[in-house]
Amino acid sequence: MSSTSLGYRAAVRLGSALAPALAHYSPKIREGHRARLGAGERLCRWARGSRDRQRPLVWLHASSVGEGLQAESVLDELRRLRPDCQYLYTHFSSSAAPLARRLAADAADYLPYDLRSQVDPLLDALAPDLLVFAKLDLWPELATRAAARGSTVAIVAGTVSSSSGRLRWPARSLLRAGYETVTAAGVISHADGERLARLGVDRKRIEVLGDPRFDSVLHRVQVVSPGDPLLSFGSGAPTMVAGSTWPGDEAVLLDAFSRIRSSRPEAQLILVPHEPTPDHLAALERASARAGLPRPVRLETAEGPTPLLVVDRVGILATLYGGGAMAYVGGGFGRAGLHSVLEPAAWGLPVIFGPRWESSRDAGLLLQAGAAEALPGTGAREAGAALYSRWKSWLESEALRRSQGRRAREVVEQGAGAARRSAELLDRLTPPRGRPHGWRTG
What we know:
- The structure is a single chain.
- This protein is an alpha/beta fold.
- The protein has two domains: 6-212 and 417-429, 3-Deoxy-D-manno-octulosonic-acid transferase, N-terminal domain (Rossmann fold); 221-414, 3-Layer(aba) Sandwich (Rossmann fold).
- The chain is built from 17 helices and 14 strands.
- It has a seven-stranded parallel β-sheet, with helices on both faces. It has a seven-stranded parallel β-sheet with strand order 10-11-9-8-12-13-14, with helices on both faces.
- Strand 13, helix 14 (361-368) and strand 14 (372-374) form a beta-alpha-beta unit.
- Helix 5 (116-126) packs across helix 6 and helix 15 crosses helix 16 (398-414).
């Protein structure tokens, strides 16, 4: 049985030791570090009081919100197939905490640091029958020590970007032991499967099942009430909803919007910053003034549609897209990476984004289908001009806008079904009720 290397253990010890110092400079790191310190004891306490050893335990781990949404759609399908199981969900990022609270899991919490001193007591208390990692966030100490105790280790929604640092030395060597424990891996595409094999997963254990995120976004759109007040902010004129934006995106958006307003003064823009901190919101107000735009109205005080709405809350972007006529997705001008293009596509909106989109498979699918546009990477001024041109054409031609939006929705619908296939894979790995821990499928 594989075990982690001394180098990996030293790296994790160093990282966890540095976390308190790093927490002084990042509220997100500080919040996550504090919650992680007590997570192991909280989960052990749940196990002592609520763990039913006659019922299989499925433990799903997803690092952040994106991976969590993929895991949620699989969890919902698996619960239908296996209502006899208990379900545990863990996450690493503090951004996933709100999602964890609403999941249909028996227990949910942060994942403790990947140290033997924290992993061993947790595995002894929980005795999971199936340990599932979403996307790529596999923790080697947890995986190897769970496998050594008889747990089955699996991956769903497996995705490995060609630029992933895990593929390079020394990360690949340090992480390999964990990936070697995987009994079955459901991946999004053949290319992801090949890269996952390079990390250490046996090729014979890899199945291409698609991306459960397509199911997740379709569900999120379907459950929005037509009377949701957030939808009304896009009424009155064809509205551009710009989601998960960063300063680089906002510079281009405000430049293009000022040009649009000169010929189409009724045009509206809803700006949804990825991190709506007070400093960021204040900077947006100053930038809007420099661009000669109306003063932004914050969602907290808005009473209805307004030319420039700035959203000062998180967790509502998927609904806001439903009130728009077209969408801009942020992250394509910086290092953060392009954010999800599937949510606006699921609403049937045409999508536009910055030049750094290559790491997003979903963006590529939309571009291939003629449902999206990518801005040039030749400079902010040129990108602003290109955004203005496409924005103007969408305002002038409802037929063009609806045609591209329809193709965007079709891309999402064609990708549906992966959550069910992933759940069926996990069902095959999960023991029947009453079987002893460590049961295996042949």
